[in-house]
Structure formats: C-alpha cells, structure tokens
Amino acid sequence: MRIGIYGGSFSPVHSGHVAAAKAFMEQMWLDLLYIVPAGIPPHKQIAGGADAWQRLKMCELAFADMEGVVISDMEIRREGPSYTVDTLRQISHMCDEDSRLFLLMGTDMLLTLDRWVQPEEIFRLSYPVYMRREGNDPILDSRIVAKIGEYQQKYGKVVRRIVGDPVVVSSTQVRRAIAEGRSIDGMVPPAVAAYIRDHNLYV
User: Fold this and answer.
1) Residue 167's pLDDT is what?
2) Which has more confidence, 152 or 47?
3) Region of residue 121 (left: phi > 0; alpha: psi -120 to 50; beta: else)
4) What is the dihedral of CA 98, 70, 110, 54, to 10 degrees?
5) Rg of the Cα trace of the chain?
6) Is-above-0.90 flag for pTM?
7) Cα separation of 70 and 66, whole Å?
8) Edge-to-edge, what's the strand order for the sheet holding 127-131?
9) Beta partners for 127?
C-alpha cells in the first residue's frame, strides 16, 4: 500500500488544499490518503473562528467526493501538541510492514523539517513530498535544492516534488474575506462555504 499523510490546521479547508490532495494522490500513486486536521500544533496558534471538530467536519465535506481519502481525528483526540512523528508512528502501526508512507508539506515546512521533533524518525517512517505554493524565485529555488541535498546526505531519502500549478488561496485570505463580508465562492468547496455560513464562522 502507498499511503499519503496530509496534515494541517485546515481553518478553513480551501480549494488549494483539495487541489494539492488530488495532485498528491495522482503523482505519488497513492492507494489511501489520510487528511489529518491538527489538534494543538506545536509551532503556531490556530486562527480562531472554528473549533477542532468543526475543522474536521469541514474536511469531511471538502473531500467527500474523493475516493481513497480518510479524514482522521487522531491528532484532535491525542493529548498535547500534534507532533508529526507521533502521527506517522500511529499510522505506520496500522499498516502492513511493506506499506510506504508519503508525507506532504509546503515549502516552509520543507525548509525547516530538520528542526521538527525527531526528524530522523520522520525520514525513517516516511518519504517527504513537497508542493510549491509560491511563484518562481531563484533564491528560494537554490535554498530548496540545497536543503534537499542536505536531507539526502543526512537521512538517505530523496524528497520528491508534486509538479503543477498551485491554486493560490490561503486560509488567511478566506478568513479575511469572510470578516470583510466578501464572497468566498471558488475559494472553498461549496459544501464548506455553506457550513461556514450555517455556523457563522470567521465573522
């Protein structure tokens, strides 16, 4: 089995998340994809407006039509900070020995991965995969290439890239649009937009 893990605060989940998940599944030939909303992220505060279970529900709505996707509450139910290494351990214990885990991340996460909790264990348990949300930037490109080379030498794993044009939208932009009374049509899946309206979130 080829199993993907895509974590995040998802506050709210938006069209860029959905596009990234689809590209992840297609390009890594995944049999299964775990979407894992964070409980208590160790590195940042989750912006207010939706609790953990509402963020989970929005993920269920956003990915309802994607075959092979599992929305997991494992980090929400876990006590304490949501460390990626613990999530990888939990999922690996649920899988056969010959399963491969692929961990999706953005550029900022890629560049700081060696400063996460137990990075050597993250690389042992999974194959990191990144997707760019930014435009072309020669300086950033060189930093990414250098970091990937450093990881390969240090951990013995090649970091793979999801290729494609990213959907340029962020959860911050969605929350700002809602707070300012602007439409979020196209920024989030229709079912998520309806849920946000029905529950008066992010106003």
Assistant:
1) 76
2) 152
3) alpha
4) -150
5) 17
6) yes
7) 9
8) 69-71, 32-37, 2-8, 100-106, 127-131, 160-162
9) 102
Class of domain 2-167: alpha beta
How far is 165 from 47, CA to CA, in rounded Å? 27
Predicted confidence (pLDDT) at residue 166 exceeds the cutoff of 90? no
Q: CB neighbours of 147 closer than 8 A, spacing ≥ 6?
A: 110, 111
Neighbouring-strand partners of residue 177:
none
Backbone angles phi, psi at 181, to 5 degrees: 75, 20
- Count of CB atoms within 10 A of residue 20's CB? 20
Alpha-carbon span 161 to 98, nearest angstrom: 23
Of 188, 197, 196, the closest CA to residue 19 belongs to 188
Q: Take residue 87 and report the two structure tokens written for it.
A: 């999530």
Could you identify the residue written with the tokens 């949501």?
82
Map out the domains of the chain as residue ranges. 2-167
pLDDT tens-digit series, residues 119-142: 999 999 999 999 987 767 788 889
Q: In sequence order, what are the residues at sequence separation of 6 or more whose Cβ sits closer than 8 angstroms to the Cβ of residue 167?
A: 14, 15, 16, 19, 20
